[in-house]
Amino acid sequence: MRSIQAASELFQLIRAMTPSEKRHFRLSNPVRKSDSRLQKDGEEANQFLLLFNVLERQESLDEEFAMKKLRIKERTRFTRIKNYLYKTLLESLEVYYRESQGDAQFFHLINRTQILLSKRLFAQAGRQLAKAEKLAAEKGNGTYSLIVLTMQIDRLMRSEDLDAVETLLDGYEPRKAELLERSADYLDLHMIKSKATWLLRRSDEALGRRREWVIELGNHPLLKQLKYPEDAEFTLYHYNLNGLIHGLLGQPEEDYRNRLAYLRTYQNNKAYVLRWPINYVIALGNVAGTAGQIGNFDELYACTREMRAFLDRDGIKNSTSLEPIVNVRSYALELDAYATLSLDEKKLLIQQVERSFQMYHHETAEVWQVIMRFGIARHYFEMRNWGMVLEWLGPMLHQGDDRLYPELQVASRILYALAHFEMGNDRYLEGYLRQLKQWMRQRKHAWEPVQALLRAIQTLLQANPRTYPVDLFDRLARDFVTPGPGFPEPNSPDPAQEEPIRRLRQLLNLQPWLLSKLKPVIQSRY
Predict the structure, then answer these.
(1) N or C terminus of the chain with fewer C-beta within 10 Å?
(2) What angle is formed at CA 234 by the lines to CA 232 and CA 239, rounded to 5 degrees?
(3) pLDDT tens digits for range 365-375
(4) What angle, rounded to 10 degrees, do the helices at 162-170 and 172-201 form?
(5) Which helix or strand (DSSP H or E) is residue 352 part of?
(6) Cβ proximity of 262 and 243 under 8 Å
(7) Mean pLDDT, to the nearest integer, of 370-397?
(8) Residue 135 is inside which H or E element, if any?
(9) In angstroms, rounded to a whole number, what is the distance separating the alpha carbons of residues 117 and 123?
């Protein structure tokens, strides 16, 4: 059982690697030109690379095929090669990200310090600790500074530098109190981030907890006031999390203001841009996204252009690994401006989004796949290409995580139903609407705005000249507008309802055809 699990984990790791990560692995482990078969006792440098190549090409794990390709019959020898490959891949990834991720760099310095201390090379260990201390200070992470302080005391005691120990101990208590407070604050930032992420991912569940957490986060002292303005890391967290919380509260202007301050903090600290380029790209994307929500499309395009131009800048480490994020997010974010474009501009944008999807969807978070699929399907709906609407939305609705981006999932299901209706799939549509209600019964948070959308569909279908059973849509309408067990009553004073309603209004504004049918209903209800 353990061997099967190890093989599965190895395969998952290879599938999760980006092209640039794989390239780095191959360059750091070149194939030798000697005999590629196993040598005595299974010690052969090429075998784990051959296994890597075989597993990389597989769509699903097939160990028997891999053993045949490597000409190995003994299961134990094959297991040793798998374990060695897994270990080597992790080591390669650690080196790959060592300089670009502050946490990895910090612990690398700490490991070096421990080795040098064990060799009693105290001066060299001190230089490594100084670098680690500087990095901890830049991050504003009190926990990291406590680690450095602990090792500094150990180093001075081992080297019997008693004068330095005395000076350090004299200032120990206030320093400890300061670092413990910073550690607690840094931990709180991660708590805020975790709760906010939970609210984004589970926005259709636990309404009581949503209300409690949204209010709690909105009033948290670390978000109300910037506590450590001298620390760029804390400043970044402060503005980024503030933007996230204001987005959850349905306050797009405040969301945009904080995201812009987050981006400016990066731009005012050039070293941070070079050290953590992926975070800078994400900061540009966050500003572009919030700018699109408030209709500031000039700012949106300025950010997306900077995202794409950023890849060509000198001194950007691992720029190849940024390509999926840049190409996917920059074009997907421009979908927010879709309604403002000419027909030719719309077609060009959709071509770029489709190309990015085809090239990078395996390396793209599912939420961005959802955004791209909906944007492409909306375009084909406007072009009255119903088949392409179903083709792009189908995998998302039937195979994906339908808790992601719930209001967009709702809009996608509505679009999917309307495409079936336009294609004349009347019987399918009746069944689909019933399935949609079952889907909605598990997603209470979006129930109110969806009731309005479903009523609009019912009105739209009734007005169509084609013949349907007389009572079909009246019956469906009565069924849908009845909340049922566990659903909030219409117009319930739930602040957590405000964000999906706002987002649905925005989505409707992107689609003129839907706008004419659905906007009056939404506005009359909310």
Answers:
(1) N
(2) 95
(3) 888 888 899 88
(4) 60
(5) helix 343-360
(6) yes
(7) 88
(8) helix 122-139
(9) 9
Comparing C-alpha atoms, which of 19, 98, 14 is closest to residue 48?
Answer: 14
**325 touches 282 (CB < 8 A):** yes
> In whole angstroms, what is the distance from residue 172 CA to residue 8 CA?
49
Per the listing, tokens 């004349």 go with: 424
Nearest-angstrom CA–CA distance, 132 and 134: 5
Residue with tokens 């953590």: 276
Whose structure tokens read 């966050």? Answer: 286
Question: Comparing C-alpha atoms, which of 447, 502, 507 is closest to residue 246?
Answer: 502
Residue type, 121: L
The C-alpha atoms of residue 246 and residue 241 are separated, in whole angstroms, by: 9
What's the rounded Cα separation, in Å, for the pair 189 and 129?
26
The token duo for 503 is 């987002």
CA atoms within 13 A on the CB side of 152: 20
Joined tokens for residue 465: 């000249």
- Residue 112 has which token pair? 């070096």
* Residue type at 269 in one-letter notation: N
Q: Which two tokens stand for residue 274?
A: 């070079």
pLDDT digits (tens, 9 = 90+) for 438-470: 666 665 545 554 555 555 555 555 555 444 444
Contact criterion met (CB below 8 Å) for 449 and 504: yes
Tell me, letter by letter, the H, E, C secondary structure of 100-121: CCHHHHHHHHHHHHHHHHHCCC
Q: Which long-range contacts (CB under 8 A, 24 or more apart) does 460-464 make?
A: 460/418, 460/517, 461/421, 461/429, 464/421
| CA–CA distance, 153 with 523 (Å, rounded to integer) | 66
Closest by alpha carbon to 156, among 177, 129, 135?
A: 129
**DSSP strands (E only) in 82-228:** none
What value, to the nearest 5°, has the Cα angle with vertex 299 and ends 296 and 303?
Answer: 140
Tell me the one-letter amino acid at 339: A
* Residue from 461, 366, 455, 452 nearest 409 by CA: 366
Residue tagged 């692995």 (tokens): 25
CA nearest to 362, candidates 1, 13, 16:
16
- Position 506 scores a pLDDT of 45
CA 302 to centroid of chain Cα atoms: 22
